[in-house]
Amino acid sequence: MSSVSPSDQKRPSGRPTRVGLWRHAAPQHAHRLAGSLVPWAWAVAALAGLAGLYVGFFVAPTDHQQGESYRIIFVHVPAAWLSMVLYVAMAFWAAVGWVFNTRASSYLARALAPTGALFTFLALWTGALWGKPTWGTWWVWDARLTSELLLLFLYFGVMALQSAIDDPRRGDKAGALLAVVGVVNVPIIYFSVQWWNTLHQGASISLKAAPTLAASMLAGLLLCTVALWGWAVAVVLGRFRTIVLERERDAEWVQQLPEVKHIKEQA
């Protein structure tokens, strides 16, 4: 019997049907790859998180204007960054799944949505906690805040649309359409402090200028950003693996997984 798998078989032209990274478009390979990355992501999240919180709360100096309340930036700023990046990633993979009909891409888009919504809520909540001592109010209909709130509604809309349609594949396509249309809100969030006169302060880190933060503040902020990135990757890939198993549960390769066999034996 030949040991060559179907994914390695060649077309009549002599070219392999899937080469390089394209082989991971198959749910089986994507599931395996995600499983190998999750432990590393958790390790990065734990190590960077401990280091970042230590630097942010015990090494970084007190701000001369905002006092100790500024330290919320070590959670607020990375959460705000991730809320936008994860939305773009969700829209990208949803579009890839829609255009190329790759199931794993659509699964990944579904896995990204709840984590993106969580970071958007976290950015809004920590922003309110920061705004009270800084602005004297929990909320203002500021351009940055309002567009970030709209981002949260877009996440909820994508998840609701995906769940409202009985056919999962049709739900993926409907969610992809809304996600792609909603991408226009991301640059509005990012550039809102430049386009309009807002209460929200401008960026402390820019590619066009030197950071306005002290070195220890910047180090703590970057470490916390890496930590939240690691956490997001670990959670998203873990959820992705669960979605793959749920949607591909009738596939033979799923039935042969040790964890699935164990569950069947316990039933």
Overview of the molecule:
By secondary structure, the chain is mostly helical. The chain has nine helices and no strands. The protein has helices spanning about 25-60, 75-100, 105-135, 145-165, 170-180, 185-195, 215-245, 250-255, 260-265. It is globular and about 65 Å long. About 30% of the residues are buried. Mean pLDDT is about 85; it is low at about 1-20 and about 205-210.
Total helices: the number is 9
Question: Mind telling me the C-alpha Rg?
Answer: 22 Å
Report how far the terminal alpha carbons are from each other.
34 Å
Order of helices and strands: HHHHHHHHH
Class from helix and strand fractions: mainly alpha
Topology:
Elements: H1 27-59, H2 73-100, H3 103-135, H4 143-164, H5 168-182, H6 185-195, H7 215-247, H8 252-255, H9 258-266
Helix pairs in contact: 1-7, 2-3, 2-5, 2-7, 3-4, 3-5, 3-7, 4-5, 4-6
